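pinned: reference chain
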Amino acid sequence: MSRRRIGFWYRLAAVIAKPPLIVLFKRDWRGIENIPAEGGFLTAVNHNSYLDPLVYAHFQYNTGRVPRFLAKASLFTPFFIGSFMRGTGQIPVFRATADAAAAYRAAVEAVNKGECVAFYPEGTLTRDPELWPMVSKTGVARVALLTKAPVIPVAQWGANELLPPYAKKLNLLPRKTHRVLAGPPVDLSAFYGKEPTSEVLREVTEAIMEAVKDLLAELRGEPAPAGLYDPRTRRRVTLSGAAPAAVASAEPVEPAAPAVPAPPAEPAGPVSGEAVSGEVAGETREGA
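pinned: its structure tokens
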């Protein structure tokens, strides 16, 4: 099997979610040619708004390669939402239980079957005061090294202008543009065959997130800062732990519930000691 077929549940999600997304956003989508037409692959996406899963899924659905996200197991329990989750093939993550590793195995299996698994490696909305990517979890690195599948870095910008991180209301006017830029696969060949130690996994994850950050700089039209933001120290750091640049150190505002219906806000917790991060929402596709 080289790709997941678009079935009833995905098409139903498109019917429901597509009209409001088209009304809310103009689109500037680039790099679709870098999404593999066949075979399994991963995408690594930055996260700066609760709306990201919806608008990003809209982009990827439009490529014909429907994504599978990882999501909290509790979302699979309600009848209506759970039916969508199961019907669209999303992967449940059981937080801090003996079944936690099942999500990790399911992600590997999906990629080996020729499907796409989409990751939000940061594991939550970025805490960087300037909304650049953060130091991330290593789940995407683990799956990438096991499968040797292409890892496509993806940057997005614009949903945060409609619904800023932790905001309580939408900024509807003027109409916002959702920008997406998918880059070529990150070259991870130097890591293949290495023991997946913590250091190796951190190096792979940083390489992926640096690629995402560079794409985001292109979207934003401004230079990217050195390093990745570490929410524990509230500074940008490199793999060595050095702080190449100081950033605002004010404690971010705690997450507030969106004032309008929004996709699940946070991905599930750690899987086998590391978070295989991702979120799921109704995926939509732009018509031909």
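why pinned: The radius of gyration is 18 Å. The CA atoms of residues 203 and 239 lie 7 Å apart.
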